[in-house]
Structure formats: C-alpha cells, structure tokens
Amino acid sequence: METEETTEAGTVRTVQEETAKVRVAMTVTEEVTYDFIVTVEVPGSAVDDPEALTEHLVDNEELWLDDLPIDGSNGYLAVNERAVNDVRILPFTEEV
C-alpha cells in the first residue's frame, strides 16, 4: 500500500507500507434511497389521493416490501450515507 509523507525538506515522497490480511466482524449502517416501480392493490379511495395512497403504503409495507430492490436490480438505488459503527478483529478460525 502506498502512502505519501512530507520530508524534513518539505518535499513529498511516496512510501511503500507493509500490508496484512485481517478477518473482521463489521457493523455498517446505511441510509439508502430506492426508486422503483411496483404494482400493488390499494383501496379505490387512495387511487386519486396522493396523501391517502402514501399513508396506505406506509401502513401496509407488506404490499411492496418483497419487491424492494435491495441490490438495485429492478430500480435505482443510491446510498446517501454510510457509517462504519463497529469493527472487531477476529482470528481466522473464529465464527461470527
């Protein structure tokens, strides 16, 4: 792995740093936006009322949750924010 460092004379030089493989257990939190198309059955009163439709879909996730494209395959997926919350080094023989 290459890194840059500044010498005492003020010049920048590239230094080859040693690397090592490690096995880690990680917890990562993401805020993701999905844009996708799905066909759902809703009450007729919600068809012409965007607020009622939104409320119905919020209250009835089972209507569309299985179609949520978590891999981006049938829609658009954008990761808005990603945070590494926890990292723990494991021995190569330990199960998570």
Explained architecture:
The chain is mainly beta. The chain has two helices and four strands. The protein has helices at residues 44-47, 50-59, and strands at residues 2-6, 12-16, 23-36, 75-90. The strands form two sheets. It has a two-stranded antiparallel sheet.
Could you outline the blueprint of secondary structure elements for this entry?
Blueprint: E1 2-6, E2 12-16, E3 23-36, H1 44-47, H2 50-59, E4 75-90
Antiparallel strand pairs: 1-2, 3-4
Structural class: mainly beta
What is the number of E strands? 4
The portion of residues assigned to helices is 10-25%
Shape: elongated
Rg over C-alpha atoms, rounded to the nearest angstrom? 24 Å
In DSSP terms (H or I, runs of 4 or more residues), the helix count works out at: 2
Mean pLDDT: 90
Order of helices and strands: EEEHHE
The residue ranges in which pLDDT falls below 50 over 5 or more consecutive positions are: none
- Terminal Cα span: 28 Å
What composes the largest sheet? 2 strands, antiparallel
Oligomer: single chain
Question: Which keywords apply here?
Answer:
96 residues, two-stranded antiparallel sheet, 15% helix
What's the quick description here?
With 96 residues, this protein is mostly beta strands. The protein has 2 helices and 4 strands; from the N terminus they run E-E-E-H-H-E.
